[in-house]
Amino acid sequence: MTHNNFIKYLLISIAFCTILLGLFNLFVSISSHINLMVFSIVFYSILSYIIFLMGQKSTQSRPGDYFLYIVVINVFIKLIASFLIVFLYVKIYQPQDKYFVIPFLTIYMIFTIFETYFLSLQAKSSK
Length: 127
What we know:
By secondary structure, the chain is mainly α. It has helices at 3-27, 34-61, 64-93, 101-125.
């Protein structure tokens, strides 16, 4: 996957998140959790970009095991960071409802699908 294709699909993922969250907001009021939504989208976008760059570098110059390490590290970082984001959000903002989980999990799933897609393309092109 080229850098330009990655950026295009990243922007599509961000747009999809925004549209889907807007639709959710029509049924369940989640607009009070905008801070969490924006932070999550920015965080997962940056993480995806870093993982993309590491994957590109590993497919061009490193042995195949290095790519596997990148995937494992990505899963671990996403898992720990996700728990930390939710924990800190609850501690800092003390939401009155539990609906903040809907936008967070939606963003998490969309970016996980996106990362799986571009990592599988990178794995196919690895040496």
